[in-house]
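To fix ideas, we give here one paired sequence and structure record:
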Amino acid sequence: MWVWDARLASDSPSRSHLLQFCRKHQVDTLYLSAYDLRSPMDDRYRQFNRLAHQQGISVHALAGDPRWGKPQYHHIPLDWVQEVLRFNSTSSGPERFDGIHTDVEVYLLTKTWKEQPQILLGGYLDLNAKIAQQILGRSVAFGVDIPFWFDDDTSYRILWNGAVKAPTQHVLDTVDTVTVMAYRNFAEGDDGTLHLVSLEMDYADRIGKPVVIGQETQQNLYPDYVTFGGTSCSVLYREMGKIRNTVGGRASFGGFALHHYESYRKLCGE
């Protein structure tokens, strides 16, 4: 589950509500916004991580910006990764982040994406490779968010690292896990979540990597079928159950990620 508001981990009542929600809804992994690890936030993250780990919840440091995919901005995420590694090295085991999770959606740079998608994709793939190299040998997982359509359009196939592949495949080759933003409020059919993640899971099965299936819960999004916002928790769980029943036994199934805590909580009336 994504948690974009870092204050929810630092304020004691909010922290308690968040962890209680995780227990109730069987959330076992958090992507927790962690842009600023300086004092006093460092100690607040340590306290939160310790409490989460006591409840069997993994915590991955979350950050991202579409511009980070451009080579001239790579130093910013690389510096951030270094800060996460420094944080972990100065923290006890239960206080450390379990992973690094980036949300770098380069296609949101709409003008450049329209004119030069291959250049943006190349820079994005290079960034992932740099981060993977940076954390090599460190006890921290590296995960990223990707859109479901990275492997749908053959025009996005790109020569990178000596091979022509879909961006999704290059990403899976590089990182530990991907979370596919397969945002639909129905599991089945030609445009349902199961169809949207099929190619990603097929490739991940072959190379032994997990795919986490992202689902959206924010309200007032267009078109409305991209989100469970405005429906109910029971509808969400019904569709997630269909997905789990169909692909839950596959090696590549890495579970679900819900976007995001505050809207998910509203969806469930809490």
In short: The mean pLDDT is 97. The chain is about 40% helix and 20% strand. Residues 117-134 form the longest helix (18 residues).
